[in-house]
């Protein structure tokens, strides 16, 4: 769930794409991505709904030091929790963060607007009924930033892409034991390039999907505008079964298997593929 991250036309979302790739690499089914405004009621509604519907939820954004960073307070309110200064996070912040060049006189021991703003980032939702180590986790020794976990499954992360990516990667060891495949081998994808229009392969792909979906394989078809070649994909966890389908599918779409989409394009052969 992206919170307040797309309020400016200058903002380009990279976190959802990174998270999608992360899930794919571990064989996790990504069910939903939502963009939420910096609005308390929207954050509360979306967080509670997603916590009820999914077993692993990640939020991105809205946990900075300014007035419009309301993710912690909104989620706390939504789950009936209080905000409390997290002392271990404060100690890590003191140890690992550096004073901004514009604040050469900043002091952790002297009250100031800057100190108040910094402490705002570690006032975390707290559930008295849960053990602290299950509510706040640190996954990267190089970062002071905590991951606040609410209701057992809502993980609150910053929106800054570099931090978001480091923290998501740090969650992997905690996720692996919960996966259907605890080795986290992920999902496999096989790509085919076909000169046929989507409408020409639609019938065959419908029959193929009916055959392979019970085996956990998804069939996809993607037009490539400006190119003569379209793409067909098979996605699933059973690599051996996917490989057994390669010859059949290549023949069915009158195409060839490829490693990367576009690898067999020719610059002088461009046209919008017919539907």
Give me a quick take on this structure:
The chain is an alpha+beta fold and 275 residues long. It contains ten helices and twelve strands. Strand 7 and strand 8 form a beta hairpin.
Features:
10 helices, 4-stranded antiparallel sheet, alpha+beta, 275 residues
What ranges have pLDDT less than 50 throughout 5 or more consecutive residues? Answer: 268-272
Q: Return Rg in Å.
A: 24 Å
Query: From N to C, what is the helix and strand string?
Result: EHEHEHEHHEEEEHHEHEEHHE
**Structural shape:** elongated
Rounded average pLDDT: 91
Q: In whole angstroms, how far apart are the ends?
A: 34 Å
Number of strands: 12
Structural class: alpha+beta
What is the tally of helical segments? 10
Residues in β-strands, percent = 15-25%
Query: Which percent bin holds the helix content?
Result: 25-40%
Major β-sheet, in short? Answer: 4 strands, mixed
- Largest sheet: spatial strand order: 3-8-7-6
Write up what this structure looks like:
- Helix 2 (40-53) crosses helix 3.
- It is built from 10 helices and 12 strands.
- It is an alpha+beta fold.
- The chain has a 4-stranded mixed β-sheet, sandwiched between helices. A 4-stranded antiparallel β-sheet has the order 10-11-9-12. A two-stranded parallel ribbon has the order 1-2.
- It has helices at residues 15-26, 40-53, 71-78, 87-96, 113-120, 161-170, 172-175, 198-212, 239-244, 246-252; strands at residues 2-3, 35-36, 57-60, 82-85, 123-126, 136-137, 147-150, 154-157, 188-194, 218-222, 230-236, 256-258.
């Amino acid at each position: 769930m992206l919170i307040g991250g797309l309020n400016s036309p200058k903002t380009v979302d990279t976190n959802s794409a990174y998270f999608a790739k992360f899930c794919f690499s571990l064989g996790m089914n990504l069910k939903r991505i939502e963009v939420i405004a910096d609005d308390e009621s929207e954050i509360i509604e979306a967080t509670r709904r997603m916590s009820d519907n999914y077993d692993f939820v990640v939020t991105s954004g809205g946990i900075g030091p300014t007035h419009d960073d309301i993710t912690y307070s909104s989620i706390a309110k939504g789950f009936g929790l209080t905000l409390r200064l997290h002392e271990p996070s404060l100690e890590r912040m003191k140890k690992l963060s550096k004073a901004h060049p514009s604040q050469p006189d900043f002091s952790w021991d002297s009250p100031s607007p800057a100190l108040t703003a910094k402490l705002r980032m570690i006032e975390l939702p707290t559930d008295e009924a849960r053990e602290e180590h299950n509510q706040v986790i640190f996954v990267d020794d190089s970062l002071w930033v905590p991951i606040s976990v609410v209701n057992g499954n809502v993980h609150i992360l910053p929106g800054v892409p570099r931090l978001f990516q480091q923290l998501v990667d740090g969650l992997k060891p905690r996720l692996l034991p919960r996966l259907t495949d605890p080795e986290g081998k992920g999902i496999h994808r096989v790509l085919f390039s076909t000169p046929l229009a989507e409408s020409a392969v639609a019938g065959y792909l419908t029959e193929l999907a009916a055959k392979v979906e019970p085996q956990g394989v998804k069939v996809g078809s993607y037009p490539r505008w400006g190119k003569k070649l379209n793409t067909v994909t098979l996605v699933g966890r059973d690599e051996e079964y996917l490989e057994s389908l390669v010859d059949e599918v290549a023949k069915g779409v009158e195409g060839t298997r490829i490693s990367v989409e576009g690898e067999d394009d020719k610059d002088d052969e461009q046209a919008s593929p017919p539907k």
